[in-house]
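Lab notes, practical 5.
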Amino acid sequence: MSLKKYGALIFVLLISTFSVSAQAYTVRSVDIGFLRTYNSYAILTYNPSGTNQENCTHAGAKYYAYIEMSGNSGKALYSAALAAFLSNRKIRLGLSGCHTWGSGTVPKVMRLDIYKEGS
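Output from the prediction step:
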């Protein structure tokens, strides 16, 4: 796939994430540490860690975030997270509510912005 096609794909993914609003708060200027993909959801870690304003109960709730992939919006969020991870770009997360994962709950991703350093 050419660089132009990658750019077009990332643009489409970014536009599709703008339709997902209802952001509770924003974690600014973070890197994705890893992206775990499961059957119908993904978990990402980000650093530096956030403040857990959602009051989720998992020990890692300050740096874990949950992406539900059952619908098109969730798949677009996951695609944007993957694009950011693969291109080593920083992200901003909009988190809202908590979702059960492992031994507790972690924040749910409702918005994901990819940007270049200095933007």
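Observations recorded by the TA: Residues 3-113 form a domain with the OB fold (Dihydrolipoamide Acetyltransferase, E2P) fold (CATH 2.40.50). Residues 15-21 have pLDDT under 50 and may be disordered.
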